Amino acid sequence: MNFQNILLRALVAAGVGTLACGLARTAVAAEPYKIVNSSQTMGTGGIDYVYADSEGRRIYVPRGNQILVFDLDTLKQVGSITNSGGHGVAVDPKTHHGFSSSSPVTMFDTTTLELIKKIPAQGGPDGILFEPATERVYVLSHRAPNVTVIDPNDGSIAGTIDLGGAPEQGASDGQGHVYIDVESQDNIAVVDAKTLTVTAHYPLQGKGSGPAGLGLDAKNHILFAMCHDPQVCVILSADDGKIITTLPLAGGSDGGGFNPNTMEAFSSHGNGTLTIIKENSPTSFEVEQTLETKQGGKTCSLDTKKNQIIVIATERAPAPAEGTASAATPPASGDQPAGGRRGGRGGPGFLDILAIGR
Q1: Structural domain harbouring 146
Q2: Where are the beta strands (DSSP E) in 175-228?
Q3: Fewest CB atoms within 10 Å of the CB: 17, 59, 82, 312?
């Protein structure tokens, strides 16, 4: 065999190998999402938001008068912060300080899970997020002031923001812009993180109502507003609010997000479904999958390291057999549910945590 033939065969083999690797990657990417892990924990009280701390590898779920803490990899409970509760949690990875959107706001140490202090906050704290560009915590409220901004170093209040309506969820582009869906006004408020002022409102123009979940593709400046009525995702430009398109959701959204690693937006619904939206390009989007989760699984969070979506729900404990003591743990003194329209009321029952991935 001459040298030319040997070289030709080597090139062909290399090409086949490259093609095979490419096809294998495509096959992996095309795999549907499924529930890859789950856990159940007995307790009492209502729930609202879940927060997956991808860097610290923990899950935080306020329930009753405490914040339950779970291992993000195993979903097993590792501790709790008592005398806290609230609706949601945000964590500053630099100071290792966590905050719950309770009234007053609870500040705690994420390493020791010890309570640091209580921070008075006006309004009714509900949603919460950490803004990385200015390293501040935004506590969202359905009543004025709509946003209370906290310095995570010492827990001091840096300022408040009037959004003109009740917010649900926010997202930061990491470049000084914070986008917050104003559920009661059907718009997205744009906040300058440095001046703590609203610079614009992007109306949904009747395409969707009651935006509750929010996803942000910071690279391509795309917003995903997940709505209740109709049950749609309104996709719009983060630069000027121009609506690009709308896509149907499998239920009324109460939580959402965007995964830049997979270029997918997602929305969780109380009817036990999760909708995955694929961004093929900044102008092309499609509903990629609808997945059954758990009835009541309204809110979600993203583990960016494993590309897994965390969904939580509660379900009633089974009734004890006649003549036997209840297996459920009775409520502790002063143990009350988080309350609020989305927090719900919860007696003894299971907290379900679902990890959804490929």
Answers
A1: 34-317+328-357
A2: 177-182, 187-192, 197-203, 213-217, 222-226
A3: 17
Instruction: Count other Cβ atoms within 10 Å, centred on residue 163.
Output: 23
Question: Which residue, among 119, 191, 236, has the nearest Cα to 90 in the 3D structure?
Answer: 119
pLDDT in tens, 216-261: 999 999 999 999 989 999 999 999 999 999 999 999 999 999 999 9
How does pLDDT run across 17-39, given as a tens digit for each residue?
544 444 444 444 569 999 999 99
Q: Is 90 contained in some domain?
A: yes
Mean pLDDT of 195-212: 97
What per-residue confidence (pLDDT) applies to 38? Answer: 98
pLDDT of residue 9: 53
Predicted confidence at residue 335, as pLDDT, reads: 33
Query: What 3-state class would DSSP assign to 321?
Result: coil
Closest CA to 116 of 156, 61, 71, 60: 156
Burial string for 175-212 (b: 16+ CB within 10 Å, else e) reads eebbbbbbbebbbbbbbebeebebeebbebeebbebbb
How many residues does the structure list for the chain?
A: 358
CA angle 332-348-344, nearest 5°? 100
Q: What is the mean pLDDT of the chain?
A: 89
Non-local (6+) Cβ contacts of 119 within 8 A are 99, 104, 105, 106, 107, 150, 155, 157
* CATH code for the domain in which residue 57 is found: 2.130.10.10
In a domain, 262, yes or no: yes
* Measured distance CA(343)–CA(178) in Å, rounded: 24
User: For residue 310, which of 35, 69, 44 has the smallest C-alpha distance?
Assistant: 35
- Tokens 């209840």 belong to 326
CB neighbours of residue 125 within 10 Å: 26
- Asked if residue 312 belongs to a domain, the reply is yes
Res. 337: pLDDT tops 80: no
